[in-house]
Amino acid sequence: xxxxxxxxxxxxxxxxxxxxxxxxxxxxxxxxxxxxxxxxxxxxxxxxxxxxxxxxxxxxxxxxxxxxxxxxxxxxxxxxxxxxxxxxxxxxxxxxxxxxxxxxxxxxxxxxxxxxxxxxxxxxxxxxxxxxxxxxxxxxxxxxxxxxxxxxxxxxxxxxxxxxxxxxxxxxxxxxxxxxxxx
Length: 183
Hints:
- By secondary structure, the chain is an all-alpha fold.
- It has a domain at 76-182: Cytochrome c-like domain (Cytochrome Bc1 Complex, Chain D, domain 2).
- The protein is 42% helix and 0% strand.
- Helix 2 packs antiparallel against helix 6 and helix 3 crosses helix 7 (164-182).
- The longest helix has 19 residues, at 164-182.
């Protein structure tokens, strides 16, 4: 390369550096989207839909992703219907006794006790009284699941804290505890 060419490249680079560092006025924006937002407002008027709004209600009968509808209502009739008809969809391969015991420990032991005898820490401290012993109750997998979904008496719903599979795992664990109490 000739010496003149190398010198002209050095001069061009020096000129570029000094002109590009001019903070008083912006000459060129390399990424204009970072400076001017291209987003729109979700509720602005539009002619795309009939009512003029971009936000629309979900279609009738649609189900949110990840949500499984529960068909039994939060009534005594719903409880009795679930008790009689609701069965676990879990196969023996789906059942994980370690995971179910862990979930029971997290959500149930504090009231129902480790053995399901109704003698959890809150009962021992007399914070709650009248927690049922599993052996004294006529419960089925459907009734246990329904109570986990909607709650019953002083027990609140655990539907927002547990997935469907986790609720069924707890149901299986409660049934095992009840079987051990009946021996």
